[in-house]
Write a structure and sequence with these properties.
Elements: E1 2-9, H1 14-17, H2 31-43, E2 51-54, H3 58-68, E3 77-79, H4 96-103, H5 105-113, H6 125-146, E4 150-154, H7 156-167, H8 171-176, E5 184-190
Parallel strand pairs: 1-4, 2-3, 2-4
Antiparallel strand pairs: 1-5
Helix pairs in contact: 2-3, 4-5, 6-7
Length: 191
């Protein structure tokens, strides 16, 4: 038997549109983010879903709500912050442009996408990957026990390790990918 994982990114938030470091700040979905969530929901409309995963942030929850409007059969919703967005620490809320003007493009690129180097009081992508891999291990066990398809309302930086795991990306490729706001990725789990 094959079960499915449907992984998607939340819709764009006001902070995303303003090009701010968002991280664990709870920026709400912007109108375009609501439209993107509805687009993902329509794409998943005809899938069968038995369980859903979200983080504590409203952008994850609100995107998932749109998807689940088509899935009354889904009666398990689990919050798990191991797949929450990367913490940008002291940079959260700050504008990308202002940071680049004050600190330079090189340091921005390091803090924004470096695998190893965390921003001040924040997380590196490597740290995010460690917690996401812990979530994946438990998720696969959950799917094998429950024998259900699942949806995951994730974040841009937590999706990178998901995709690296399931699509066998190198660290370099994982660091370069951009995850869409209005589409999903599908993975098979043999149970």
């Amino acid at each position: 038997m094959i079960c499915k994982i449907y992984l998607f990114r939340h819709g764009q938030t006001f902070y995303n549109l303003e090009h701010r470091f968002t991280g664990w700040k709870d920026s709400k979905l912007a109108p375009i983010g609501i439209k993107q969530s509805k687009k993902v929901a329509l794409k998943l409309k005809n899938k069968k879903i038995g369980a859903a995963f979200q983080t504590r942030l409203s952008r994850s929850k609100d995107t998932l709500k749109e998807v689940l409007k088509f899935h009354p059969e889904c009666n398990i919703i689990i919050q798990d912050d191991r797949m929450i967005e990367r913490s940008y620490g002291k940079l959260e809320g700050h504008f990308h442009k202002r940071f680049i003007e004050e600190k330079g493009r090189k340091l921005f690129d390091i803090y924004h996408r470096s695998y190893e180097t965390p921003p001040p009081k924040g997380e590196s992508v490597k740290m995010v990957e460690k917690r996401v891999l812990s979530f994946i291990k438990d998720l696969l066990a959950f799917i094998k026990i429950k024998k259900v398809n699942v949806v995951i309302s994730a974040h841009g930086n937590s999706m990178r390790p998901f995709r690296r795991y399931f699509e066998h990306f190198s660290i370099r490729k994982m660091s370069q990918i951009e995850n869409p706001w209005d589409d999903y990725f599908e993975y098979n789990v043999k149970v």
